[in-house]
Amino acid sequence: MEKNDHNIGIPFFLKKQGYETKGVHSHLKKGYQRNEVYKKLGFDSFISRETMIAESKELPIYYDEGYISDMSFVDRILLEVNKNDKSTFINSVSMQNHYPYTEATKGKLKQEDNLLDNYQDIVDGDQLALYARGVKKMDTTIDLLIQKLTELDQPTTVVFYGDHGPALNQSLYDNAFFKDDKQLQKYLTPYFVWNNKINGEQKPKIINPGFLGSLAFSEMSVAQAPFYQFEHDLMQKLPAYNIAKNLFLNSKGEKIALTAPLKEALHDYQLFQYDMFVGEGYSKELFSI
């Protein structure tokens, strides 16, 4: 990311409403130039693996599955949430269940940790078994995080999603049994939106990651800029799509054909994105409250 001349994005938008914005990533700060990219995205501070190690006397860290553990990761999130009474936006990325899925990295697969009865009969099944063990651990940690956040008095919203699927050997994807479209299922990751005060609106079965911000805003006490209002309206009608593959899905995850109004709205959305990322920023006022 070379520039963000127009200062757009969720961190910039929330800072205008009094939020403190923090990035937490439990891996290296120089990977993908994270220490620079987070600044350009509008984050006030960035906490990396190096930060967590440097401050481990105050907040001990532990390792699991070859990386800083999710338990230590959650401890850091809760520390940042409780630092002051100011509204806080935290974008956090965990590494515990990241590849490589080998016993050399993840540790020996014990029988009591194995969730797959027949993994030895599957090509590269040992990788799948290690990944499944990591998912189970992650579920336990997420449950702990939600329990702790439930205790907070202030309204709190959590958006959970996978930023990419597991980097398992191709054989596991080639031989995978999917109930639905194999190509579509290959690129799906779980997500949920949770709020400690309200149930919120009905969530789409499948959603483009770019819409998650607008979905979260609908459950938060924040003023809505015209762009995010437009984005939320588009998300309700077309929550997931891939233009290159001519794939368009409704809130039930069903394939649909674009109507003329929807096609026009999607085209407008693309123009906004182009203008704000590489254009002259004529649409900048749409991000104002």
Keywords:
single chain, 289 residues, alpha/beta, three-stranded parallel β-sheet, two-stranded antiparallel ribbon, 11 helices, 9 strands, globular
Task: Please provide a written account of the structure.
The model has no long low-confidence stretch (mean pLDDT 93). This protein is α/β, with parallel strands linked by helices. Helix 4 (70-81) runs parallel beside helix 6 (125-150) and helix 10 packs across helix 11. The protein is built from eleven helices and nine strands. Helix content is 37%, strand content 12%.
Number of strands: 9
CA distance, first residue to last residue:
26 Å
| Helix/strand class | alpha/beta
| Nearest-integer average pLDDT | 93
Radius of gyration: 20 Å
> Strand portion, in percent?
5-15%
Biggest pleated-sheet summary: 3 strands, parallel
**General form:** globular
How much helix is in the residues?
Answer: 25-40%
Order of helices and strands: HEHEHEEHEHHEHHEHHEEH
> Which sequence of strands runs across the widest sheet?
2-1-5
Give the count of helical stretches.
11
